[in-house]
Write a structure and sequence with these properties.
By secondary structure, this protein is an alpha/beta fold. It has a single domain, classed as 3-Layer(aba) Sandwich (Rossmann fold). The chain is 37% helix and 21% strand. The protein has seven helices and seven strands. The protein has helices at residues 22-30, 50-57, 67-72, 75-82, 99-104, 127-136, 172-198; strands at residues 11-16, 37-44, 62-64, 87-90, 109-113, 141-148, 158-165. The protein has a seven-stranded mixed beta sheet with strand order 3-2-1-4-5-6-7, with helices on one face. Helix 1 packs parallel to helix 7 and helix 6 crosses helix 7 (172-198).
């Protein structure tokens, strides 16, 4: 594991991601010129996740966890403490956060969900599953929800929502594109707002 690249920053963010890391990339880019904010760790539950390549490119320490380690050891909390993490951002991380971690970081774990909760939330509601469900339901809008994490999927306090209009011609793939654009624009800015209220 590489050492943190800016441990002197006053606010340390850890990103948990399972996939390619497009939201992680937006967060890294957004805060790249902010000396008081540092992306100190990227954790993934998949050893081949593209987000790990992004971390290496940006000299960010990484941590790969197994399901057993994540749910039944203190490996995660030890590393979050090691890097003085102030905020955990779930950016496409598909595992339910265990109770011990929620209790250790109350109101310090954020998730971004690609729908307007409480609609299209819960176990199994992620990625294209959501966009197909939105399409099949003939919704006239969808969007994103950024919320604090508790011990239930997609159930924590809502911090922010943004919506986009849909037409009957929007395929699930087109819906995914519209929602991803909202995610990329809003997630870094909402994180910044949260940091500004806490510093």
């Amino acid at each position: 594991m590489k050492e943190a690249n800016n441990s002197s920053a006053s606010y340390q963010i850890a990103i948990f991601a399972s996939g390619r890391g497009s939201n992680a990339e937006q967060i890294i880019d957004y805060f790249s010129d902010n000396p008081s904010v540092n992306i100190c760790l990227i954790l993934s539950n998949r050893s081949k996740a593209k987000v790990l390549e992004l971390a290496e490119k940006n000299h960010i320490p990484t941590l790969i966890t197994t399901r057993d380690e994540f749910y039944h050891s203190d490996k995660i909390t030890k590393n979050l403490v090691k890097y003085n993490v102030d905020l955990v951002v779930l950016a496409g991380f598909l595992w339910l956060i265990p109770a011990y971690l929620v209790k250790a970081y109350p109101d310090k774990i954020l998730n971004i969900h690609p729908a307007l909760l409480p609609k299209f939330g819960g176990k199994g509601m992620y990625g294209m599953n959501i966009h197909k469900a939105v399409h099949n339901a003939k919704e006239n809008e969808t969007g994103i929800t950024i919320h604090y994490v508790n011990e239930v999927y997609d159930d924590g306090e809502v911090i922010f929502q943004a919506a986009c209009k849909l037409s009957g011609e929007d395929t699930p793939e087109r819906i995914a594109e519209k929602v991803l654009a909202l995610e990329h624009h809003h997630l870094p800015r909402v994180i910044e707002q949260i940091i500004n209220t806490r510093q």
